[in-house]
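User: Here's a chain of 158 residues. Predict its fold as tokens.
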Amino acid sequence: MDQKQADNTFKTPRMVPPFWLALTIVSMWALDRWLPLLDLWEKPINYIGIFFIIIGLVLNGWAAGRFLLVKTGLIPFTPVTSLVKTGPFRISRNPMYLGMLSIALGAAIMLGSLSPFVVLPIFFIIIRNRFVIPEEAMLEQVLGEPYLQFKSERRRWL
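Assistant: Prediction complete.
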């Protein structure tokens, strides 16, 4: 492995973002089931959550498709071959994480009590601290000036 390849190899976390999303949804369900703080709404109003889940799935699929199209690493901290600036990356540096947040928000709305909403900020902090901030540092190191330019043109979230 030459130096350029060595610089583009980072430790892939064992628990990738979809794991944290699944854990978040299971935690929200458990809190709603066994510790519902306050019922916020009932059926059919809670079905509004489906809209947020669909938006999240579409964002994730669209962004993942852009990565696959240019054959760059889809899993966090896997080798990066190019900078994706098209599709949902035109409006956010992190559309896949936004998609996951939208899915989690939709699940909380679907459950209907206040308890699931307690987990949302925890999920956000985990994703930001374990993935977003370290990924940005990695991309700055690997891609250099093109990524810094992209970073100055796009917001982290929206």
